[in-house]
Amino acid sequence: MLDKKATDVLVLQVAPLTSVADYLVIGSADSDRQTSAIADHIDGILSRSGSRARSIEGTRSSQWVLMDYGDVVVHIFRNDIREHYALERLWADAKRIAVSDERPATKPAVTSRPVKRKKVSAKKKA
């Protein structure tokens, strides 16, 4: 989600509260287009890793996209829709798992220099 600039990303551990899923992942987007882009990105990454969605709903309007991967259910909301449904309040008893919006700083590329080797004269070798 963060790769496509989702905001307020939250992971809720709901396993002790329901048998529907172990985790809910919730994130927000500024527009329908961004919501759709986030959903496409998640589905693409998980499909390449071998995880197929059981169901994806809401892609037509892209105001609220729900992606069911079995143990993990992903909700991608447009900001105003997320405020209206307030899933965080509905699942207030769930354990919240922190998600950092910070990206690790990229390290500058290290260029290797040829190692200068000392020449050993034939006299020293013997």
Distinct helical segment count? 4
Order of strands, main sheet, comes to 3-4-5-2-1-6
- Total beta-strand segments: 6
Might you state the CATH topology name?
Beta Polymerase, domain 2
Q: What is the overall pLDDT average?
A: 84
Q: How does the major sheet shape up?
A: 6 strands, mixed
Reading off the top of the CATH hierarchy, the class is best stated as: Alpha Beta
Structural class: alpha+beta
Domain module tally: 1
Principal-axis shape:
globular
So, CATH architecture? 2-Layer Sandwich
Order of helices and strands: EEHEEEHHEH
Radius of gyration: 24 Å
Question: Can you describe this structure?
Answer:
The chain has 126 residues and is of the alpha+beta class. The chain has a single domain, classed as Beta Polymerase, domain 2. It contains four helices and six strands, in the order ββαβββααβα. It has helices spanning 32-48, 79-85, 87-90, 122-125; strands at 7-13, 23-29, 55-57, 64-68, 72-78, 95-97. It has a six-stranded mixed beta sheet. A hairpin with a 3-residue loop joins strand 4 and strand 5.
Structural key phrases:
single chain; Beta Polymerase, domain 2; 25% helix; 4 helices; 126 residues; alpha+beta; 6-stranded mixed beta sheet
Secondary-structure map with pairings?
Blueprint: E1 7-13, E2 23-29, H1 32-48, E3 55-57, E4 64-68, E5 72-78, H2 79-85, H3 87-90, E6 95-97, H4 122-125
Parallel strand pairs: 2-5
Antiparallel strand pairs: 1-2, 1-6, 3-4, 4-5
